């Protein structure tokens, strides 16, 4: 996207007078400028009438002003960038006190500043990505401390939440500042697994639907005769099969997770060494029975 080339502005002694650098000279101005073409406007003008880019209160400099007599210069062709992107870059370089000038969409800097300029360009390219509107303020998150699972959850949840985001070359995450609270909430919950990460059993030889039906029938019997040994054994044995089953074809992860969890729960209760009231068994059996009724 960015091509760079050395421009032959070999350090000739062109600076006869004092060099007008913008950095500290004019903290209070009563005019604004176009950073790109240098046009001067009244304070209330927000956009250059020629270039359509936002105006700035930092006085623009010419290529002659960039660097001292012995400094080599280099040019970055940023024609493919939006005016917004160039405006962001201009502001960033000004804040970093990197001497620079524009010739239209071409940026002139000192060769000595190449690294700083490259870094700024990399950062702007991220915020200027289509997924993020460069006109909106962004914030950055470093992801160094996330493990792979948490990284995956973060991506899924940003996507599910419809939160615009982008990554730079370091893997740092950029999001809109206005989304900060939502993103913070996602970060605070990354320890917790997503439903889609739920793992089930290795699979069984029996037909999944017949196992589900078996459980349904066993529960019907258990609810009629809660103290009968055979009713209890049927439920406990079928619960073991359910635990080993893969996610049945066509069934939602959420639904099957509930079946597996509730079966295990009920089985634990039935095989518990402690005295368990019939009410508690009936309550869990009824819940699972109702859930399975929709599946058989
Ligand atoms: Zn302009």
Distance between the termini: 58 Å
Tell me the major beta sheet: 4 strands, antiparallel
Share in β-strands: 5-15%
> In percent, how helical is the residue content?
25-40%
Tell how many strands the DSSP assignment holds: 10
Outline the low-pLDDT stretches.
Answer: 1-26
Bulk shape: rod-shaped
How would you explain this protein's 3D organization?
This protein is α+β, with helices and mostly antiparallel strands. The protein has three domains: 3-127, no CATH class; 138-197, Alpha-Beta Plaits (2-Layer Sandwich); 208-293. The protein has eight helices and ten strands. The protein has a four-stranded antiparallel sheet with strand order 1-5-7-6, with helices on one face. The chain has a three-stranded antiparallel sheet with strand order 3-2-4, with no helix packed on it. A three-stranded antiparallel sheet has the order 8-10-9, with no helix packed on it. Helix 5 (208-224) runs antiparallel to helix 6 (229-244), helix 5 (208-224) runs antiparallel to helix 8 (278-293) and helix 6 (229-244) packs antiparallel against helix 7 (253-270). The radius of gyration is 33 Å and the shape is rod-shaped. The protein binds zinc ion. Zinc ion is lined by residues 34, 36-37, 39, 48, 50-51.
